[in-house]
Amino acid sequence: MQYRILGKTGLKVSVIGFGGIPIQRVDADQAVEIVNRALDLGINFFDTARAYTDSEFKLGKALRARRQEAFIATKSMARTKEEMAADIRTSLDTLGVDYIDLYQLHNVKEKETLERVLAPGGALEALEEAREKGLIKHIGITGHIKDVLKVAMQTGRVETVQLPFNAVETDGVEEILDLAEANNIGTIIMKPLAGGALTNAGVALKFILSHPVTTVIPGMDSAEQVVANAAVGDSDFVLNGEEKSLLEEEVARLGSTFCRRCEYCQPCPEGINIPAVFLFEGYYDRYNLADWAKDRYRNLPVKADACVQCGACEEKCPYNLPIREMLARAGAKLA
Ligand code: SF4
Ligand code: SF4
Q1: Is the domain of 210 the same as that of 302?
Q2: 230 CA distance to ligand 1 centroid (A)?
Q3: Helix count (H) and strand count (E) of the chain?
Q4: Tally of domains within the chain
Q5: How far is residue 314 CA from its own chain's centroid?
Q6: 265 lines ligand 2 (CB under 6 A)
Q7: CATH no. for residue 161?
Q8: What interhelical angle do 55-63 and 28-40 show, nearest 10?
């Protein structure tokens, strides 16, 4: 496994980190096994969030036994000082540790929200106080909107930035990486497989690591995935001709109007599981699994046709997807 320095935090992190969303799907014992496997293979950076249901608990259960081998990053959507201070305490308790290596402002999407967290009484103040007390070691920010991240990076108050980057989502990334380099800010790459749309994980991860990023955090919920992803951390990060063509084919096939399954559009007031509908549509279109996809769709308690066109989901989607139109198309196909 290769390691890079996470900007001004000085932490020497594995180039392949561990994304903590999918671990929600397995039980706690399996999670411990998977995390231990990752540690054994040299993965030392683990990212979770208050918002990922029991992910903090499961990661903490495994990591607190090997605390010196791991850097733990978590994050909170809290926007005020009071709420953030409470969330830091909850994270420490849930993880079962006495300090957290990196605490991030989670998904700051709008300039107004950023102003709110930066202002006196905002969430950043709680993070800075917690850092002074040693409860957290470093502060970062995560988000999808590059212009907002850039403003945050220029304040000098965040040490890391976490953003999506993959072969189909490259807009504005170069600028962020340049700014990060100029300000010695660590870069953590989420959504490396574009929410599962990119199917060749090895090539997708290699593509990202051929850029000057610090670490990439694919989500993992099996030992097989851990082994395969960790192996990429040992490679030279140079795509050969065949790998380049493979990636180009996938990019051409996907276009840009597709769901990355970030779940920011949820909850739909009518109860539609929007990313699930698009996931099943992907199985229908891309994997030759039409019957299986239709079957899964049939089992959804609320179908796409329950949409009342309120538009709330589209306001929240960081990719500005025409969700209503896409749902109608997917629903017709899967019905
Ligand atoms: S537009 Fe439809 S899918 Fe979107 S939040 Fe409203 S009801 Fe739900
Ligand atoms: S529709 Fe948009 S917000 Fe919802 S999961 Fe997909 S990409 Fe994310």
Answers
A1: no
A2: 39
A3: 14, 10
A4: 2
A5: 20
A6: yes
A7: 3.20.20.100
A8: 50
